[in-house]
Amino acid sequence: MIPAVLTPEIAAIGIAIGLLFSLVCYLTTNLSPGGMITPGWLALTMVEDLKRAALVLGVTVLTYLATRLLQKNVILYGKRLFAAVVLTAVVIQAGVYLVLQTQYPLLYANETLGFIVPGLIAYQLERQPKGATLLSVSTVTLANYVVLMAGLLLGVMPTS
Description:
160 residues, mainly alpha, 6 helices, globular
């Protein structure tokens, strides 16, 4: 049985599995799947609430498009690009949060990383080939999700 709210232990295991799969992906393909913590966090989000995962996808697209627009007016590279992309994601996610918090108050429960993850994915979309980045993020997240769900359904994950 899947717990209604993921415990801190399950969250730590999910992030650890994501780190392992992300490292394997990076070492074998030289592609970052949206950052090292992103696939683990996305898999945990998919386990808990698919609406939040869809929201992350939407904010990632908006962040990428806003960054492309910003780059037409400002020279961004290296650390400045990283800071600009992540800050853009946080601002967009905060705006979405302010709009949706009254209608869907539980959508953002314990959602700290959710403000940063879209920026990490959008940053990798800027640095790497887009198709390869989307494929690596999707594959590593899906593998993490399958392992996490199997562990939850088989009852081998700590539930308390």
